[in-house]
Design brief:
Helix content is 20%, strand content 34%. The protein is an alpha+beta fold. It folds into two domains: 1-57, 2,3-Dihydroxybiphenyl 1,2-Dioxygenase, domain 1; 73-127, 2,3-Dihydroxybiphenyl 1,2-Dioxygenase, domain 1 (Roll), CATH 3.10.180.10. The strands form two sheets. Strands 1, 2, 3, 4 and 5 form a five-stranded mixed β-sheet that branches. Strands 6-9-8-7 form a four-stranded mixed β-sheet, with helices on one face. It starts with a strand and ends with a strand.
Length: 127
């Protein structure tokens, strides 16, 4: 069995697609739009492995980003090496993405940085 994709609701579909294409090398399919429901989506591919589906629609509500709650927590990107983690962290920091922790070696042996994308979604960069 293999994970197919993870979906993420976003406020600004085009800006978020551009963010993941620019900084993570994603390739996007053609935008899907359901005029009945207002749903619009892109599937982003990162070479191999699972895809990320970015979605938006009218009437979405805000989530309390500060609260820790059950459910999905973050998306982790394997970027190759410690040097690659450090380099991408620097680029994303200069682009305005808040760095929340790291770089550090976790208790389970990952070299990682935790940060937020432009809409506050939690990301990890791991070596």
């Amino acid at each position: 069995m293999q994970l197919s994709h993870t979906a993420l609701y976003v406020r600004d579909l085009e800006a978020m697609k551009d963010f993941y294409m620019r900084f993570f090398g994603a390739q996007a399919n053609q935008k899907y739009h359901n005029p009945k429901t207002g749903l619009q989506t892109y599937f982003l591919s990162f070479g191999a492995g699972a895809r990320l589906e970015l979605m938006t629609r009218p009437g979405l509500s805000e989530r309390d980003q500060a609260a820790q709650a059950f459910g999905y927590t973050h998306i982790a990107f394997q970027v190759g090496s410690r040097e690659a983690v450090d380099a991408l962290t620097g680029v994303l920091s200069l682009a305005g993405c808040p760095i929340l922790s790291g770089p550090r070696v976790t208790g389970d042996g990952y070299y990682e940085v935790s940060l937020q994308d432009p809409e506050g979604n939690l990301l990890e960069l791991v070596a």
